[in-house]
Design brief:
Layout lengths: L9 H8 L10 E2 L6 E2 L10 E2 L2 E2 L6
Antiparallel strand pairs: 1-2, 3-4
């Protein structure tokens, strides 16, 4: 079984782990109420999806 020939330094190890992070989700504008929403999902503020009322949102 292969073994490392030298110890990996902490800085080299941490540089490799530095790219594992969360990204901001891509948001789009709702065509009805112009609020930001996740794509391909019902708008939480107005209840529309693909130019139809899907949810009744109480105001």
């Amino acid at each position: 079984m292969g073994l490392p020939k030298r110890k990996i330094s902490k800085s080299r190890r941490d540089k490799r782990r530095a790219n594992w992070k969360l990204d901001m989700p891509g948001l789009v504008e709702c065509p009805q109420c112009h609020e930001l929403k996740l794509p391909h999902r019902v708008c939480k503020s107005c209840g529309y999806y693909k130019n139809r009322t899907v949810l009744e949102v109480g105001e």
